[in-house]
């Protein structure tokens, strides 16, 4: 049987662990996996695009375990009361190919995305960073805010969204964190002014110019989360030209990231190289750094490991998703197990069978 | 909520519909989808190989619905009482990206594979075919036997497997079809002798020579099912040179099918062209035809449509795989719904949080 982790299980888990507890442990586990990067069989995700969205499959394996995530991106969904991004995933044994755990990954993706942003910022942002601009106050924004407040020492948040109600919701939810000072900016430029870290997490599937060169100050770290599929970017190309850019998995980021705007020979560094000390990105306090985050399958592999370790209980629900057979070569016998009573030699009339 | 179809639901369905009823309707629905081939967004499946097996993801979309299948292939699994092939799948709406149905596809894959074999044989085999050799008597064999007996008029089955117990099981299971005469052959050559149709459905992940040129007689149709991943073939290359070969989706078959043994310019016909009358393969009764079947995502798309139409009940089990929100931009609020009681400003001690 396959163990199932649903949104209800995640809600129960977060009620005790708190988002910052989950994000903190995910920073550790995602970092653990990025540091053993060469062990993974990696592929750019497989996308099925439509005019209004995308459905993607993100497989990865370390030779012992295999994980994949199904995730969609449909910015117009919110108009109909639906989420822009939903996701679920599976963790399997490579030795047998059998799936072991099926889990919700919508909430989990928001947690692991914030964790990956923090993991990168710990390496790329100035250690004395205390103020973060948060552009885009939608479904992902609280998780980014809490991650950077609780795990990166961010004390002031400068927030902006074209939809004031989204900002209302963000401010309301963050009232649970009284030590975090929140400034409601009148524009993106107003939010970015004076920030140490700028996080962009907007949703429109367009080549937007959320950040322009005039807004960027020396020493800033830009955590660019919202540019994550072809035709969906947030930064002006000149910002990238003037900065040092770090990505998760270069072949995928060239297709989906802010990087899609840049020439093929534009130099970037992969996050695992920074974590392993093979590359140094921030050389001084005036350096501008960009984490061009699109989300990579390894982060979901780590997230599935987290769910198995911290959320899965012995009392977990199980699904008859895969047959259990007495004789593995007798799939037919298993399939017909219920039909003992039915006279096998008299096919149902509804069939066109001549036997 | 996502509707769930488990192996128990399939067992109940087959008890009333019978395998031949399901295979017959699948022949119709798979044919329906192959005939609208240009409407589908097609990709070769994404495989993650290990020394002892493979895990594959098979996505496809017709612009309105999206389906994917997870399937593994681990021939050594039977030694441990596990299935060589297990599978499950999801059917989603392209407009929202939301998954609608999660289903078992292990039993269903055996049914749709047999249906696809019948669909191809209806076009490629001699109409007067009455005798079929069945080489490989494992998990898939009964479904092939029943499909060809009930829907193609096969009256005599000549069966062989290197494992006599597999053949015992096949013969036992087929006793439910008394009109089908079964001959237990002493070898593959003995089984193939005089057959109108030869179906190979063996499991070893090797470049095997199950069929050699000396066994092939004029007018035979070869339904080659077992050669379905790199390094896994069943036919001697000279059989293909001397025959007309039909495949499902050429780019995938070049990688995974019997075709992997042939030069890149070896001519093949795609099944949809035959179904649409754009290509004629059997020109006379002495023609040798080969259906080099590897299994294509379109067949699983059709199978998911079948499950939704014929198996899914109003009483179906539902899973909280995807969150349901009052405010789609308030994922955080949904995630923390259970924590109202917990004092939000006092993070759990277990967290390293500084907030």
Automatic annotation (TrEMBL), chains A, B:
Origin: domain of life: Bacteria
Stated name of the protein: Ornithine cyclodeaminase
């Amino acid at each position: 049987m396959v163990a199932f982790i649903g949104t209800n299980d995640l809600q129960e888990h977060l009620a005790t662990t708190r988002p910052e507890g989950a994000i903190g442990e995910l920073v550790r586990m995602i970092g653990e996996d990025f540091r053993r990067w060469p062990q993974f069989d990696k592929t750019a995700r497989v996308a099925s695009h439509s005019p209004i969205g995308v459905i993607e499959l993100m497989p990865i394996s370390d030779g012992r375990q295999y994980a994949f995530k199904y995730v969609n991106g449909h910015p117009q969904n919110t108009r109909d009361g639906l989420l822009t991004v939903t996701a679920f995933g599976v963790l399997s044994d490579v030795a047998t190919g059998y799936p072991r755990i099926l889990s919700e990954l919508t909430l989990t993706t928001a947690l692991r995305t914030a964790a990956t942003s923090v993991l990168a910022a710990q390496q790329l942002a100035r250690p004395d960073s205390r103020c973060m601009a948060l552009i885009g106050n939608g479904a992902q924004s609280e998780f980014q805010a809490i991650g950077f407040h609780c795990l990166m020492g961010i004390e002031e948040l400068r927030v902006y969204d074209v939809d004031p109600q989204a900002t209302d919701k963000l401010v309301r939810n963050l009232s649970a964190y009284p030590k975090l000072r929140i400034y409601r900016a009148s524009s993106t430029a107003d939010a970015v002014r004076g920030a140490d870290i700028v996080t962009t997490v907007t949703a429109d599937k367009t080549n937007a110019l959320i950040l322009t060169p005039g807004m960027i100050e020396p020493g800033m770290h830009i955590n660019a989360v919202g540019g994550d599929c072809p035709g969906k970017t947030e930064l002006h190309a000149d910002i990238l030209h003037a900065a040092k850019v770090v990505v998760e998995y270069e072949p995928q980021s060239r297709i989906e990231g802010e990087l899609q705007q840049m020439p093929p020979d534009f130099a970037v560094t992969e996050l695992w190289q920074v974590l392993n000390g093979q590359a140094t990105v921030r050389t001084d306090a005036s350096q501008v750094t960009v984490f061009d985050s699109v989300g990579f399958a390894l982060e979901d592999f780590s997230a599935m490991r987290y769910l198995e370790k911290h959320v899965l209980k012995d009392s977990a629900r199980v699904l008859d998703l895969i047959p259990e057979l007495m004789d593995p070569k007798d799939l037919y016998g298993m399939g017909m197990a219920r039909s003992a009573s039915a006279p096998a030699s008299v096919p149902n009339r509804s069939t066109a069978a001549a036997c």
